[in-house]
Amino acid sequence: MRIDWASRTDEVMDMAGFLEQVEAKYDPLHPETAWELRSDLLKLGNNPELVQRLILKSVFERLEKDISSELPTYHYLHKNRLYSIRATIWLPESSRSEIRRIENGTFAYDYPHNHDFDLLTVTCLGGGYETEIYELDPSGELNFIYESNETVEATHRGRFRLSPGTVFLYEAQKDVHSQIPVESLTVALNFLPVSPNYLHMSQYAFNILDSRHLQVSGSPINFERQKEIFSIMAAKLINRGSLEMDILGMMSSLNKAGGAESLAKGLVRAFEAGADIHETIGVSNRLLNNYADTSLDTRRRRTGEGW
Question: Which end of the chain is more exposed for a tag (fewer CB within 10 A), N or C?
């Protein structure tokens, strides 16, 4: 992972200005050129009012469709075939164990995994987050395919905080990170390259064995399945009256018109009405349990506690 602590700036940039810099500096055939945008992304992140307006726009677009088309943590502010700009919302853990388990699945807390794409990120709102980093294959042979339960060598790089003014570049395949729950609401701004270089790359989840070895626990739940799990589990809890908008609370903080309640009702309707969703509950619950096992092991390693 590449980290820049030195580019902190008070300059502010609007979206049009940032897109101009992308056009000038970024080459999708060389996605590492995303690093050249680090100071520009910081300047865009110094425009939180713009980011909040774009998140609100995303929220209302979803509500018009009656149900979220993406996880509620992710909001795409700009997207084309070469790259996307995304805001990611991080919430503190709930004090309730049944909610915390779903939150860990939604926010990928305590879930060591790599990405099959590069990710440039800064903090836009809040105090930032901490993440634990392991580096795979320092020799540079990155077109690897792992088997489930395979033990792989890694280098523990330590724990780092994405404080305001800091820039992270998570490098495709190479960086395994385990997100630590935030203390307060945080919004990160991401630049996500789209490159043909990623076509043969792989993404995995891992159990941490020690500072030099990780065990492959499988591929992370694919995005469509993750959305489905979230919808099913949230709907189940809402139906029995035990969910008090802990996960969806971010919506009400962004949307004073009651978007969280509308989205929650949409989730309930989707759960109650869809035979296709119903048929996949067993599969989804097994995937959620696999996810939870890996996350729980990592959480116990970090805190000594369970859910």
Answer: C
